Recover the amino acids of this structure.
């Protein structure tokens, strides 16, 4: 039988270019290994004496036209090559053969990392897709998926008729976000228009990637503002450490390791640094935290302020944001003075306010100022023998300490009455004359005032000698005048005499 098939096959070759009045239905077919197959061979020619099918393992025998059928209940040949032949009335023969493609879908498909184990970010790796027992390989397409995304499609150039094992390799550099993703491959036979319309793809079980990568912190803000009363701690930040292996996390403040669960207070504002570390490396990130809080006062209840000092140097509230400070005196809001005046002493209410609350504080201000004299420098003239009083007083806060600087005498005495200090001089003499200096001093400053005291002599003791001297000079002058007049009259011959005693009486 095999010899007959071979002879028929040779006849097919030699008659390939000759016209053969046979028609195959279908002339091309795609059939799965083990499925039934049936092909009709027919002719409309009138000169065909008989026809039949031949295969390497037998045929249908010689049958009269117009149709002869080749039928197999279970096709178990990978390269079937049946042919239909016809014997014409002139004794010649011709043959035709169908084109039959036998296919087999893979037994299974799998993905492996070829023993690499966990992958490290940044390095290159190969994943292998094994397709087992498939044919025809030249019609095979392997598609790679990362998650649901297609990343690679591969076809094959092998031309085989029997099932073989084949594989597809995908090379890639894993990224950290690949960790936990699944990779899979699908094997699909594309058998053309003659093949089945709906041929299922064979998909591998998913391969879950494990990617090792250096640690980092994500979702960490640059700056955070929190409220002290909210009991905020570092571990409440949205910072999320990431890395594979999962990293350890340590928080530092001013280069010191801290407990991230401790609530932050107003003194804890500043820069905080998180350090994350695993076997592949370490990294850090920083967050500046501002701890805000409601106003409060730490001021005293009593202040002594030097006149003209700035108000801002007295009592400032603490708080963040910086509180707005309002001053009240006698229940009325007052404008903040630029300088304190000596009449500003009194009781004040301070109100501090920011977005987190309000605080109040009461204090008493004592305005201090240097001594101030009520009188200017002075000069005083008295008669010798008179009583003299020199007074000195000064205003100041605290009250001034007043003292006199002068040359002490037995007839002088200093007394104090209230804020006034007085020098009393009894029956002043020339020794009491001079400059008297009043000094007023307190802890704010010192002032001086000068009083010049002049003593005049007693006129009753010196007035008469002066008068007698003047009268004597007058008498002498008159005498000389009379002598002169007498001489002048004598020269002219006329003389008038006046008794000397009469002139003395007139003078007196």
């Amino acid at each position: 039988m095999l010899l007959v098939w071979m002879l028929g096959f040779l006849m097919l070759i030699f008659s390939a270019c000759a016209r053969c009045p046979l028609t195959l239905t279908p002339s091309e077919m795609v059939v799965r290994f083990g499925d039934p197959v049936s092909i009709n061979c027919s002719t409309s020619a009138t000169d065909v004496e008989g026809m039949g099918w031949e295969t390497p393992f037998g045929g249908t025998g010689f049958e009269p036209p117009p149709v002869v059928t080749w039928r197999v209940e279970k096709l178990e040949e990978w390269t079937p090559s049946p042919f239909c032949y016809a014997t014409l009335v002139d004794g010649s023969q011709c043959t035709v053969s169908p084109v039959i493609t036998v296919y087999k879908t893979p037994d299974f498909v799998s993905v492996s990392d070829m023993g690499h184990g966990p992958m490290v970010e940044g390095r290159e790796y190969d994943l292998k897709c094994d397709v087992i027992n498939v044919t025809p390989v030249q019609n095979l397409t392997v598609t790679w998926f990362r998650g649901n995304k297609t990343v690679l499609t591969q076809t094959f150039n092998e031309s085989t008729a029997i099932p073989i094992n084949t594989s597809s390799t995908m090379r890639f550099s894993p990224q950290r976000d690949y960790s936990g993703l699944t990779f899979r491959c699908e094997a699909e036979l594309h058998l053309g228009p003659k093949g089945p319309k709906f041929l299922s793809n064979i998909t591998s079980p998913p391969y879950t990637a494990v990617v090792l990568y250096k640690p980092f912190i994500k979702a960490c803000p640059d700056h955070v503002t929190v409220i002290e009363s909210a009991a905020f701690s570092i571990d409440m930040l949205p910072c999320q450490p990431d890395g594979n292996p999962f990293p350890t996390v340590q928080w530092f403040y001013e280069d010191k390791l801290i407990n991230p669960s401790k609530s932050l207070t107003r003194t804890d504002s500043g820069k905080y640094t998180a350090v994350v570390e695993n076997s592949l490396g370490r990294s850090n990130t920083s967050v500046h935290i501002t701890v805000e809080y409601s106003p409060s006062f730490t001021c005293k209840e009593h202040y002594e302020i030097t006149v003209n000092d700035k108000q801002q140097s007295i009592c400032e509230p603490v708080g963040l944001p910086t509180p707005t400070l309002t001053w009240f005196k006698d229940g009325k809001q007052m404008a903040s003075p630029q300088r304190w005046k000596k009449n500003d002493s009194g009781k004040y209410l301070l109100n501090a306010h920011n977005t987190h609350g309000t605080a109040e504080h009461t204090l008493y201000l004592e305005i201090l100022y240097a001594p101030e004299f009520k009188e200017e420098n002075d000069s005083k003239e008295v008669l010798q023998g008179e009583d003299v009083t020199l007074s000195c007083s000064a205003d100041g806060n605290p009250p001034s300490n007043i003292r006199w600087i002068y040359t002490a005498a037995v007839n002088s005495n200093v007394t104090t009455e209230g804020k006034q200090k007085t020098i009393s001089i009894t029956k002043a003499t020339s020794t009491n004359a001079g400059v008297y200096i009043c000094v007023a001093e307190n802890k704010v400053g010192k002032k001086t005032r000068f009083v010049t005291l002049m003593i005049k002599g007693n006129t009753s003791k010196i007035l008469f000698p002066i008068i007698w001297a003047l009268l004597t000079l007058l008498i002498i002058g008159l005498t000389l005048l009379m002598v002169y007049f007498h001489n002048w009259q004598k020269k002219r011959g006329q003389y008038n005499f006046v008794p000397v005693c009469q002139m003395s009486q007139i003078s007196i």
About this structure: The chain has three helices and 38 strands. The chain has six domains: 2-103, 108-209, 213-294, 297-370, 374-456, 471-507. Residues 460-492 form the longest helix (33 residues).
